[in-house]
Design goal:
Pfam families: HD_5 (PF13487). The chain is built from nine helices and no strands. It is mostly helical. It is globular, with a radius of gyration of 16 Å.
Amino acid sequence: MLTGRAPALSPDERNHQSRVAGLALQIGVALGLNEWDLGVVEAGARLHDTGKGAIPRAIREKPGPLTPDEWTTMREHPQLGAHLLFEAGAHPEEVDIVLHHHERWDGEGYPHGLCGEAIPLGARVVAVADTFDALTSARAYRAASPPAHAARVIRAERGRQFDPRVADAFLNLVLPTLDPA
């Protein structure tokens, strides 16, 4: 069981969380969330990958595909992060965002296989922002995708991986800014 200080994330991981928070905040505004809910979404987004600090760096930064056992370990990060934040006294809604940001609208996500409206709205917002930033950022195992490609992925996963309303809010924000490439 993890206790005490949160494990350290790399500068790239912290920058990712910051970018996700900014984008999640924009999506929340587009959805018409109130000031309190915007603050919760932004804070949850800034913390969403906290649990990755407890995952061995060799797995987090592996330059090739993860093995099935490594994927099992990596998929523990939402629960690890939620536990750390709960123990630290974080607001329960922020903990829920961290715990559920890899759930899918269609119920095929993790850690609990929640679907649709059972997934907290903040987690649904962070899921879209997280995916977009992950796709448009270079990783040890792949180059960054162009934003237009990432937007097409979000559109294609609308109603499967992502809440359609959240995906639409995101797409209405980013599509006008993208080259049609």
